UniProtKB/TrEMBL annotation:
Protein name: LacI family transcriptional regulator
Key words, A-Z: DNA-binding, Transcription, Transcription regulation
Pfam families, A to Z: LacI, Peripla_BP_3
Organism: Echinicola soli
Superkingdom in the source lineage: Bacteria
C-alpha cells in the first residue's frame, strides 16, 4: 500500500490554523514570529504523529538554503580524496550540513555542467579540485556567487578565491634533498603532463635542484588520460632502459609510483639497491610493499579541517563581507626502505 503523502496545507487544515503558521514552526521561525509555545508543541506533535518529512528541495527553494555542500574532485575513489571526503563529512554533519560527492573525471565540460545543476538545487557551497583546462572566467564568476567556492589541492593563479593547498614545491624538495644527502646525483623525475599548480610546483622543485646542482634533467611526462594504460607502461619501460645509469627516481604522484615500480621490476632493477624511489603522496600500499616506499605525506586532517572551517565561516559571513582565505599547508617526508641507497 502506497504511503500517504502529507503537505503543509493538509496539516494546516487538520489543525485549523494557517499554512503560514505551520511553515514558521517547521522552519524554526515560530518564536521570532511570536507564535505561542502551546501552538508550536501542537504542530510538532502532529507532525511527529503522521511522520511528515518536508521536501528538502522545496525548502531550499523557499529559503535559499539547503544545508548541502558539494565536494567535487577528479576521482572520488582516489584514496587521498576519499579520506578527506570522509573527514569533511563527519565535521559537516555535526554542524547540520550534508555532503554531496561528485567526480569530475578532470573534465571541465562535465564540471561546469554539474555546477550548473547544483546551482539549481540551491546548494550552500562548493569545494572543488579544478580540472585541467577549467575556464578561469567561469570560476571567477562562481567565486562571486552568494554560495562560496573553495578550491582544493590546486588553484588557478588568475582566480582570486579561497583555497586550501599544500606547498608542493617544499614537499618535493624534501624528497629530492634526501637523494642528494645520500650522495645520489643521477636523479630522474616521472610526472603527469599537466600545468596544474600542484604538478607545476613539484616539477619546478626538480628543475631548480638540477640547475643548482649541475645535474642533467631526466624527465618523463605521462599524458594524464593514459597513466593507467599499456602506453604508459611502454613509455616507462623505454625511459628506464634508456637511462640505465639512474640512481634514483622521484614519482610526482602515488599512482605513477605504483605503475613505475612494476616496470622497474620488469626491467630487472631492484629497489633500492639499483634505484632509490620516492613517491609524492603516501598510500597504505607503500607501508606493506617490499621494500616499503618512502613518500611525501600530505596532512589530510589539516586539509579537511581547513576546508570545512573555511566553508562554514564563508557560509555564515554576509556575501559582501567575505574575504578570500588562502591556506597553504606543509607536507612531510616519510622515509622507508626504498631510499636506503647510498652512493658507493
Amino acid at each position: 500500500m502506497q504511503k500517504k503523502k502529507h503537505s503543509i496545507k493538509a496539516i494546516a487544515k487538520e489543525l485549523n490554523i494557517s499554512v503560514t503558521t505551520v511553515s514558521f514552526v517547521l522552519n524554526g521561525k515560530a518564536e521570532e514570529n511570536r507564535i505561542s509555545q502551546k501552538l508550536i508543541d501542537k504542530v510538532q506533535a502532529y507532525v511527529k504523529k503522521i511522520g511528515y518529512q518536508p521536501s528538502q528541495l522545496a525548502k531550499s527553494l523557499r529559503t535559499g538554503k539547503s544545508n548541502i555542500i558539494v565536494f567535487m574532485v577528479e576521482d572520488i575513489s582516489n584514496p587521498f580524496f576519499a579520506t578527506i571526503a570522509k573527514m569533511i563529512e563527519d565535521r559537516a554533519f555535526k554542524d547540520g550540513y550534508k555532503i554531496i560527492y561528485s567526480s569530475t573525471n578532470n573534465d571541465p565540460v562535465k564540471t561546469m555542467g554539474l555546477i550548473s545543476m547544483f546551482r539549481d538545487l540551491q546548494v550552500d557551497g562548493y569545494i572543488l579540485t579544478p580540472p585541467v583546462g577549467m575556464d578561469a572566467g567561469f570560476l571567477t564568476e562562481l567565486s562571486k556567487d552568494r554560495n562560496p567556492l573553495i578550491l582544493f589541492d590546486r588553484y588557478l593563479p588568475e582566480v582570486d578565491c579561497s583555497y586550501v593547498v599544500i606547498d608542493n614545491f617544499q614537499g618535493a624538495k624534501q624528497g629530492l634533498d634526501l637523494f642528494l644527502a645520500n650522495g645520489l646525483r643521477k636523479i630522474g623525475f616521472v610526472t603527469i603532463d599537466s600545468d596544474q599548480s600542484q604538478m607545476h610546483d613539484r616539477r619546478e622543485a626538480y628543475i631548480q635542484m638540477c640547475e643548482k646542482e649541475g645535474i642533467e634533467e631526466q624527465i618523463l611526462e605521462i599524458p594524464y588520460d593514459t597513466y593507467s594504460s599499456q602506453e604508459t607502461e611502454n613509455a616507462m619501460t623505454a625511459y628506464f632502459e634508456s637511462n640505465g645509469d639512474l640512481e634514483a627516481v622521484f614519482f610526482a604522484t602515488n599512482y605513477l609510483a605504483m605503475k613505475g615500480m612494476q616496470v622497474i621490476k620488469q626491467v630487472g632493477k631492484k629497489i633500492p639497491n639499483d634505484l632509490a624511489v620516492i613517491a609524492f603522496d603516501d598510500n597504505e600500499f607503500f607501508k606493506f610493499n617490499t621494500p616499503s616506499v618512502s613518500s611525501i605525506v600530505q596532512p589530510k586532517e589539516e586539509i579537511a579541517q581547513g576546508l570545512i572551517q573555511s566553508m562554514l565561516q564563508s557560509i555564515s559571513t554576509p556575501q559582501g563581507e567575505r574575504e578570500s582565505n588562502k591556506i597553504v599547508l606543509h607536507a612531510s617526508l616519510k622515509e622507508r626502505e626504498s631510499t636506503n641507497k647510498s652512493k658507493k
